[in-house]
Amino acid sequence: MPPTEPPTTLGEQLLLLSLDDESGTAKEQAKVALAVSAASLVELALAGRIDVTDDRVTVVDATPPGEPALDAALAAVAGRDRPGRTGDWINRLRTDAVARARAGLLEKGLVREERRKVLGLFPARRYPEADGSVEAAVRQRLDAVVLRGSVTPDERTASLVALLHGAKLHRLAFPDADVRRVEAAMESVAHGRWSATAVRHVVRAAESALTATVAATVATNLAAGG
């Protein structure tokens, strides 16, 4: 029997993939934060709440989807008088999106919070795995779609692949697989005709914005360190 998978948002799934199961330490934090933020826009597109035209995010239905993280993201986008670019929204929503994804994992009992002090002085929080069933199911879906190609992806799985690909998080999903093979397979899935045109527009815009933002962040970090 395949692992069961209770409902989770794309942002929660991305965060689960980034957390070390035992220590709760987050990997690739900067990239994951951007991907989680972009995921909120993709979820709103899947729910028929937003669209992207010429890289401008517009609200087409302001009705709250009923998921706290998505309700907050939609309210933020709807509260702007003028449409903003996809990349701008990814940056604006980043902190709140990560916090809400983390809260969702805690509420659903998938991780637990551990508080400690680094060097006996600085407070730190870690989120070790409490229930591994969802992450196992997510990884199984990704393996079937990306590596084995044995399953045709649904909208949400293809969206997750596109977000991982855009944020350059290939190793997060497949730490032991050949990177070039994974990149090629993810690109094929991300750019396939797996959804309605409007949703694909948002996913492609989010993917492009992620790629550009991640590249800019890496360049800034290199400049600061060098």
Descriptive overview:
With 226 residues, the chain is mainly alpha-helical. The strands form two sheets. Strands 1-2-3 form a three-stranded antiparallel beta sheet. The chain has a domain at 10-131 and 196-225: Orthogonal Bundle (yeast vps74-n-term truncation variant fold). The chain has helices spanning 10-18, 29-46, 68-78, 86-107, 133-147, 155-166, 170-173, 179-190, 197-225; strands at 50-53, 56-59, 84-85, 114-118, 122-126. A hairpin with a 2-residue loop joins strand 1 and strand 2 (56-59). Helix 6 packs parallel to helix 9. It is globular and about 50 Å long. The model has no long low-confidence stretch (mean pLDDT 88).
Number of helices: 9
Spans of at least 5 consecutive residues with low confidence:
none
Structural class: mainly alpha
Q: What is the global morphology? A: globular
Q: In CATH, what is the homologous superfamily of the domain at 10-131 and 196-225? A: yeast vps74-n-term truncation variant domain like
